[in-house]
Amino acid sequence: MLLKDVIGKELLSVTSLEGLNKKMLFIFTGLALLATFVFGFIFYHSGLTILFYHTLFASLVFGGLYLVTIRVTTSVIAIFRLVIGMIYYSLVFEICLTGGIHSSAIPLLLFVPLNSILYQGKKDLIVLNVLVGLTVFVLWLLDIYGVDLTSQLSTEDQPVFDLANYILLMSVVLMLVYFFKNQMILAHMRLENAYDDLREKSRMLVESEKMASLGQLTAGIAHEINNPVNFIQLGITNLSKAMEDFMKFQQENDNCIRDVEHVSHTLRGEELHAYVNDRIELLKKCREDIGFDTLKEEVHTLMESIMHGSDRTSAIVKGLRVFSRMDQDTFEDVNLSENMNSTLMLLKSQIGEGIHVRKEYKSEIWVEGSASKLSQVFMNILVNAIHSLEGRDGEISISIDDTIQSGFTSIKISDTGRGIDPQVISKIFEPFFTTKEVGSGTGLGLSISKGIIDEHKGSISVSNNKEKGVTFTIELPKSQAKNL
Amino acid sequence: MSQARPHILYVDDEPHNLMMFKIMFRRVYDVTTATGGQEALNEIKGTEFDLMVTDFKMPGMNGLELTHLVREIRPSIPVIMVTGFMGMVDEEDIKSQDIELISKPFDEQTISGAIKEALSGNSF
Predict the structure, then answer these.
(1) What is the rounded distance in angstroms from the CA atom of residue A99 to the CA atom of residue A108?
(2) From A200's CA, which of A68, A402, B14, B34 has a CA 20 to 30 Å away?
């Protein structure tokens, strides 16, 4: 299941529960109980004391309320509890309305412990359940011993209407109210948990999106820096080896001078000449051995390479300045062109050689904003463009136009990729919307980008190109200071 | 009698790396360089190399794809692969294919140690 579906479901359950606030549930429960009472009374007096009516009515009321408060559930124990509850309350109502203590008391008393077990440690409900059981038990005993409370309390003028049964009914009403109050508290808790969960999940997603751009950034930097560092490192090793060879030759030279000086005092004429010639030959051989001329050329090449490597690394580090204040919210004047170039540099490793990047913008275009956040937006759009090309050859063109007279600078980034399905193009800036496979995209990149552009009081939109690919258009307010 | 010098093919899309490698080992090995997969394959067809050292991430064909193609021609050639990020490749998978992995940037000791080992090892 996609992450956004999970989140969607959570949202759905939150919104559906939100409609049922506490007050409404109280009113609903109260009305249902009143209806039970009134209808029970009518049934009783109209002589329709058929078990079927009572059972059906009590079951419907109880089952309906149960379903409303806890929603349809797939938990086996909850369904079991619902069935047991329906039978249990039917029996209670049966006794209340018909006074048929004899027929219903025993099965009802059997249900009391079972019901208590099913309440799974909810003490107050168990106590009420046991109280109902005790009331039934007492009424049953009274009935067995022939004590009729109703006739004892009744007078000729004011007959008391089946008092015992109404005592029982009231205790059941009390229990039901208590039960539904608990259900509502549970529903409220579930709502709160779902909300907390949702908040935590969205926080984690935003964080993971940040980490994803950080990952892209570091991968880009690592790749760009790796090669120059590698050849600088090897270059220095090579240079020091060359240096050793030079030193060896230098040593030979020194030895030679010393020897010649030494013999010049003792040797004369031909002998000295032969000695010097011999030494010169030795030096020539040494020079040849170390490959002096090759070495000299090599040293030049090595130096150039090392210089090139250090220039490249320092250019990369300079480009990183854009990201050095990633979390800063203050706005400053940002050179969009420099910002775009730095972003492209970091994505160099991802832009294959088959992708041609066409840049149409001058070297200085100023807007007011956060350099790192704008770069994050460009990176998001560019990475999407690279992905939409799916390794095929193609073109990404970037144009920035600040000549329009609306006070806005317009940035257009288009690709020649697969484009966006017209049916989903309107959803592209929605959070959690992604066309990528599970795990490869959070679906937050573009919604965060939209948030960033909104923060800059700009606008962002996307449309499919006539031929292929898409164009993202971003408009940002021009820098006030720089455009005076 | 001196033995023939081992002949190494080094493949990397960064010319500076190729040059450094060539200079570093010119005294001990014959080094031929190639800037990409296709060039390397052309070299392999004509010459019997004792070892191939290749970069992993290269435009067009990566080091692993190149190794597969090279081994179709020279099944027994030892291969050392150099990669910028270990995280980008499946280390276990690569090692199981009898390819030695080295991370970039590398120093002389690491690369020359690996080369010596690869050259002395029994190739299948």
Answers:
(1) 14
(2) A68
Predicted ipTM of the assembly: 0.86
**What is the CATH code of the structural domain delimited by B7-117?**
3.40.50.2300
Last residue of a domain, one of A320, A338, A364: A320
Q: Is A250 within a domain?
A: yes
- CA distance to partner chain A, nearest, from residue B78 (Å): 23
Q: What is the band of A317 on the pLDDT scale with cuts at 50, 70, 90?
A: confident
Q: Give, for A203, the enclosing helix (H) or strand (E).
A: helix A163-264
Q: Quote the pLDDT of residue A373.
A: 84
Asked if B20 and A234 come within 8 Å (Cβ–Cβ), the reply is: yes
B106 touches chain A (CB under 8 A): yes
CA distances from A418 to A325, A439, B74 (A): 35, 21, 40
CATH number at residue A401: 3.30.565.10
pLDDT tens-digit readout, B73-96: 999 999 999 987 666 678 888 889
Contact A374, A451 (CB under 8 A): no
Amino acid at A50: I
- Domain count within chain A: 3
Distance, in Å, from the CA atom of B81 to the CA atom of B43, rounded to the nearest integer, reads 18
Chain B nearest-CA residue for A306: B16
- How far, in Å, CA of A62 to CA of A180, rounded? 10
> Domain boundaries in chain B?
7-117
Identity of residue B12: D
Q: Scan for tokens 């062109």, then name that residue.
A: A337
Residue among A219, A230, A237 minimizing CB distance to B85: A219
* φ, ψ of residue A228 in degrees (nearest 5): -60, -40
Q: Are strands B30-34 and B7-11 parallel, antiparallel or unpaired?
A: parallel
